[in-house]
Amino acid sequence: MTSQQQDAALAAWAEAGQFHPRRAVTGARAAADGRAFLEAAEVDLVDLERRVGGRPRLGGATGPKGQRSPRVNVAITPSQEAALNALASRGIKRSDAVRHALDLYLAAN
Length: 109
Known about the structure:
Number of domains: 2
Mean pLDDT: 83
Distance between the termini: 65 Å
C-alpha cells in the first residue's frame, strides 16, 4: 500500500465515524501502543527519539526515558508570585528561580 493509499484509507476510516471507544490507556501500555502505532506507520523510531529526545532530567539524574524529575508543588503568596513574574520578565524562568532559592535555603540549614 502506498503512502497516499494509506492516507486515503485512514481518512475514510476517520470520516466514517465508526469508532469503538474503549477505556483510556495510560502508562506503559499507552507507550507500547503508541510505539506499535508508529512502527506500523514505518516511522524510524531511532531517528524520532534522537530528534525529540525530551527534556533532560535535572541534576544529571539518570533514568528511563520519559521518567520525570521529582516535583514539589507549593502555594505562594501574591507578593512571591509578583516577584517571580518580575524575574520572568527579565528572562529568568520561574522554576530556575525557585530551584536556586531552595538550594540557598537548604545549604544554609
